[in-house]
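Run log, item B.
One chain of 209 residues. Sequence copied directly from the ordering sheet:
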Amino acid sequence: MSPQGMVYPTAPSHEGPGGKGRTVARVIAGMTMSLDGFVEDANGSAAALYPDLGELRDAPYMKAMQDETGSVLMGRRSFEMAEDPDSYADTYELQVPIFVVTHTPPPVAPKRNERLFFTFVTDGVQVAVAQAVAAAGERAVTVVGGADLTRQLLAADLVDELRVDVMPILLGAGLRLFEGTRPLALEKLGVDEVGARTSLRFRVATAAR
């Protein structure tokens, strides 16, 4: 599995209406991309963007993401990147409830454990976000891809923070993360260096929730 979000530093969840009551989980969207803006190469592979994946698994980078994440939101294509869907329960780095936005749930539910289980949401991104936020509690909803889901969430003003890891490589062609995205105002929260990665963190100025 490939980590798609950035983690330094962790910010608090926001509070409910009027700044009182139960805190509401932040929705954090982001992916790793090349310097020229691609999250996959022309052959549909993201392998060139993760030469450090083995190092990240045991790094503070991953530990912070695990501590921060209360639930995961992903698209169907990202879910199907695993050769065996049952492997999520055994080896996935983020052992939390996972919500998959899809038109059609798989015929057989993947293996689950006491922390990780799947919910396949067929009613659109707003319903998926609401369910993921409820499951996350006071921790964050981490969106792990793909690019289409991230664009849908941005279009619906459902992203609180945008986090992008930039890798020092030019892919030249492929799938762009922000292709067709409308103009959005962002507030810079920070820039961190994680090995070869440059991690950029922004607050999205408008969010519908």
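Observations after the first pass:
- Residues 1-13, 16-22 have pLDDT under 50 and may be disordered.
- The domain at 17-204 is CATH 3.40.430.10 (Dihydrofolate Reductase, subunit A).
Flagged for discussion on Thursday.
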